[in-house]
Amino acid sequence: MGRRTASLLLLAVLGPGLAACSSTGGKPENANQFPADYRKEIVATLRKFFKSNDTVKVTGAMVSEPALTQVDKDQRYAACVRYTAHGVNPGEIGDAVRVAYFYGGHLNQLIAAGEGQCVKVGYKPFPELNQYCVGVGCQN
User: Fold this and answer.
1) 14: domain range?
2) Most exposed among 14, 25, 42, 74, judged by the fewest C-beta atoms under 10 Å?
3) Is residue 4 part of a domain?
């Protein structure tokens, strides 16, 4: 197959997909869609984090309802998560407060909360995260 034929074939295959992206600018129609599965997405993301940081158990997990929050020049849904992670070494305990940012109804970023960032939110119990336990003594 000639180089020109291959280029035309590639354009024919990729063209419609690229055109679809350009019609919306590659952004979801509703960047501020409410994140319906926010709890599941937060748990899935934190489980990956915990595995890479030798966390074996989580206690005291709490989460706030997502609310529209000013982020730079835009508004985005954000939720606060608070928990205590117990590590591999006996007595290794770490309290954490994180902010989950959502874009298009899905978790986009989960980062450590800045000082005072999550102090005025209403927390609710987060049993899905409290169930995280790996290793001896866990009832999986």
Assistant:
1) 1-27
2) 25
3) yes
pTM for this structure? 0.75
> How many domains does the chain contain in total?
2
Q: Say whether both 72 and 110 belong to one domain.
A: yes
Question: Residue 80 is encoded by which pair of tokens?
Answer: 């606060």
Give residues with Cβ within 8 angstroms of 39, minimum separation 6. 63, 126, 128
pLDDT digits (tens, 9 = 90+) for 5-59: 333 333 333 334 434 433 445 666 789 999 999 999 999 999 998 888 888 899 9
Place of tokens 């001896």: 136
Read off the pLDDT of each residue in 61-81 and give the average, rounded to a whole number.
Answer: 95
What is the rounded average pLDDT for all residues in the chain? 81
Q: Given a cut of 70, is residue 101 above it in pLDDT?
A: yes
